[in-house]
Amino acid sequence: MKATQALSFLILIWLIIANNCLAGNSEITKGEKVYQEYCNDCHGIKGIGEDPKNPNGGFNSENEFVAPALNGTAHTWHHHPVFLFEQIKNRKVNKSSPMPPFSDILNDEEIHAVIAYIKSLWPENIRKSYDERFKE
Ligand code: HEC
């Protein structure tokens, strides 16, 4: 009887973990679709940046904005999650940036999903220290 209970308990724990992993992955998959549709053209495939030789972005020789890399090679992971959310929703910082605010295009869930996708592009050590640094 005890063994059966222990087994049931283990199965329950396994189901909870599996369910969380699937939920996490489906958020990333959803975010990837959002990214490909709305962000890829400027920030490059898998967030490599508009000019991968210059991941930090900035300006080109014509003084036009160059979209930075989002994949962990530039400084996106230095920003607080609230900043990332606001940047995408309301383009908070640079009002002259070509990046449009997405408040009329993406709902909050889609914005969180695209952030989850961007974070999935970061090296694991960066992602872990980011989550540690900004945990609520
Ligand atoms: C028309 C080009 C363009 C599009 C489309 C675009 N961006 Fe940007 N994005 C930029 C530029 C240029 C910057 C740098 C200037 C600034 O801060 O606005 C930037 C900055 C950012 C930053 C801040 C990065 C950092 O390291 O400081 C994030 C995060 C970001 N974009 C995410 C997104 C996401 C997510 C999408 C799609 C939903 C998107 N962008 C669509 C051009 C674009």
UniProtKB/TrEMBL annotation:
One GO MF term, please?
metal ion binding
Q: Which residues form the signal peptide?
A: 1-23
Keywords attached to this Swiss-Prot or TrEMBL record, sorted alphabetically, are: Heme, Iron, Metal-binding, Signal
- Tell me which residues make up the Cytochrome c domain: 26-122
| A Pfam entry, by short name | Cytochrome_CBB3
Coiled-coil region(s): none
The identity of this protein, by name, is Cytochrome c
